[in-house]
Amino acid sequence: MKRIPYPSAVDLANLPTPVDTLPRVSQAVGRELMIKRDDLSGVALSGNKVRKLEFLLADALDGAVTGVVTCGGEQSNHARATAIAAARLGLGCHLLLRVADPQQPPAISGNPLLATMAGASIEWISAEQYQHRERLLAEAAEQRGYYAIAEGGSDAVGAWGYVRCAEELAAEFGDRPLTIVTACGSGGTVAGLIAGCRLLSLPYRIVGICVCDDRATFQQRISDILNQMAQRYDVDVATEPEGIEIWEDYVGLGYALSRDEELQEMLALARSEGIVTDPVYSGKAWFGLLNELKRGRSLASPIVFLHTGGIFGLFAKSEQLRSLI
Ligand SMILES: *Cc1c(COP(=O)(O)O)cnc(C)c1O
User: Fold this and answer.
1) How much is the pTM?
2) What residues line ligand 1, using a CB cutoff of 6 Å?
3) Over its length of 325 residues, how does the chain's per-residue pLDDT go in tens digits?
4) Residue 272 bears catalytic tag
């Protein structure tokens, strides 16, 4: 296999993550479905953000900072993973988390609970302030002498985490046709997978199912990340927006809002295969994939669903889930 010119990384994730078969679901839909378990990259420090943080935190340590600052929604998995990874490396962590009313912050549970247990400080910000997150992150980093990590860890550095994932998939599947389907929320995961397939000349089809915004927004964002990687690291991964496959029909009620039919499909997966997804990302994307397969969408087999983690966000939906069980 070709050698990939990885930048430096710290070791945070349990890799490679396993690939599991889904025998009962596969039989039910009449297609060969498998699942890449990036939800098993760790326990509290788990999910897709850990792969990105291996590269981002190495970049932070290169700059000799004493901590990191990042941002996200109230139940951000990325913020939680960043807080725990920072503690593992002896770094401080400050989080800007978006809530409806910063004057009345929510009770700390789920992801923010884990983040504060690991010593992170939280600053609640409004949706209006969140629109200026890049400036707020830069200011918070400047004040503290910290390194700023972009939303979702999705930039030219973090995306290398998913180049490594593409390399793991190549070790598992070789260069036969394959469809990889994953949730898309800030674009770094899809960007890294595309870059990895380019660097290894893999014929894999990468599909991102967006959980917010729309196709054009993500095509542009992912293209930007790939172009920045190409420039910064001198690798041949530059990609036009039109060459990036995003399915936009599964945003549903909006970011972090769940329809009962999405939760029903998550429950069905948990019951038939013992695999638990999260309502904000992996469960929504899973619902989208199954819906497309039931409608007869043609995709090369095997179809590998990338489980990106997020289990702690499940508990914010306890009530809605309980009503369906
Ligand atoms: C952040 C996240 C995603 C989306 O990944 P991006 O690289 O931001 O597109 C998917 N699933 C989970 C569980 C996440 O936390």
Assistant:
1) 0.98
2) 47-49, 77-78, 152, 154, 183-189, 278, 281-282, 308-310
3) 678 999 999 999 999 999 999 999 999 999 999 999 999 999 999 999 999 999 999 999 999 899 999 999 999 999 999 999 999 999 999 999 999 999 999 999 999 999 999 999 999 999 999 999 999 999 999 999 999 999 999 999 999 999 999 999 999 999 999 999 999 999 999 999 999 999 999 999 999 999 999 999 999 999 999 999 999 999 999 999 999 999 999 999 999 999 999 999 999 999 999 999 999 999 999 999 999 999 999 999 999 999 999 999 999 999 999 999 9
4) no
Rounded (10°) angle between helices 282-294 and 260-273: 90
The single residue of 8, 26, 46, 76 carrying the catalytic annotation is 76
Rounded to the nearest whole angstrom, what is the distance from the C-alpha of residue 31 to the centroid of ligand 1? 25
CA nearest neighbour of 282 among 192, 209, 179: 209
Alpha carbon distance 267, 273 (integer Å)? 10
Ligand 1 geometric centre to CA of 55 (Å): 16
